[in-house]
Amino acid sequence: MKLWIPGPTEVRAELLAECARPMIGHRSDAMVKLHERIDPHMRSAFGLAESSPSRVAVHTCSATGLMEAALHGVGRRALCIVNGSFSKRWAEIATLLGLEVTLLKKAFGEAASPDEIDRALTEQGPFDALTLISNETSTGVRTPLAGVAAVLRKHPRTLWLVDVVSYLAGMPVDFDTHGIDFAFAGTQKALALPPGLTVLCASQRYLERVRPAVRRSYYLDAVRVIDGHAERKTPATPCIPLYFALARQLEDISDGVTLPEFDRGLRGAAAWRARYAKHERMQRATEAWATKHGLEFVPAPEHRSWTVACIRKGALDVAKFLAAVKQRGHTLSNGYGDLKDLSFRIGHMGDHTEADLARLLEVCDEVLATVALR
After folding, report:
1. How far is CA 237 from CA 224, 225, 232, 279, 311, in A?
2. Quick check: pTM over 0.85?
3. In this model, does residue 371 exceed pLDDT 90?
């Protein structure tokens, strides 16, 4: 069965085998070596220059945990952009933590424009932090980072916190270039690993703001996690098997192992760029398939994710369509939250190949041609 949901996604056998390695101690030299294998490639994943002062780290928790961790110590007021189920969750977490939360609401399937963000920051600010889901997995909406980055440069007091959960390793983050202050992702999306770990990146500015602040958490204290990672002493026992898999996957991506044959010789930053290009081609192929069948995407063309296609159902019965595709060996996903049964999603991310996607879309063609779905 091929897994095409927008996370967890398909995991290569080689990476699953890494999870079965003999156990090591989390305070051992072997664990230090694992950290040292991970760090340079993770800096590449976030698009950091070698001289960048920004810090990377790994934590054993879900990405929702880092939604909370990112907020501890940032200040009192947060502007939360809400345009899907996961951005709504982040705003709810901020409220539970006692922050004064202002919402910039958009319809599910839409992105906030730079002008709208600028207006909210100017007219309702000042704000200590802005939260943004860069790629709303629930709707397939991608918010281009460059436009928001230009706005945030006009509001230097505001820390920019970005969820790159289904963005990282599928599209270029360029953390420093965009002036992001804190970004995080789970490993089960475009990194194509089992769930259980999060990876994160924090700017020097973020750490200078948050380090002296009162942070009412232990396990979800981002500073503690970042410092523990740098010292090779995680705050608590990590999920060591997933560290093995993460190290192998990051090395494989940097070595071009999972790229199409014509790109297989690329290494380093060029290999990462080729991975992003592959995801963009998969998005375009899925878009062409949907157009052929008269199906519409939920997001506008300029906001369509390279990793998650969210497609309106049209006249289809979503449950019947998904069941028929599954009978033929492929699992797709229903819509999420407000879009459940009104859309379906294809997670064309991670180590899926373009040939894999072509086979999936052929199966979808067969289902649409032969099964009564209305």
Report:
1. 14, 12, 12, 34, 41
2. yes
3. no
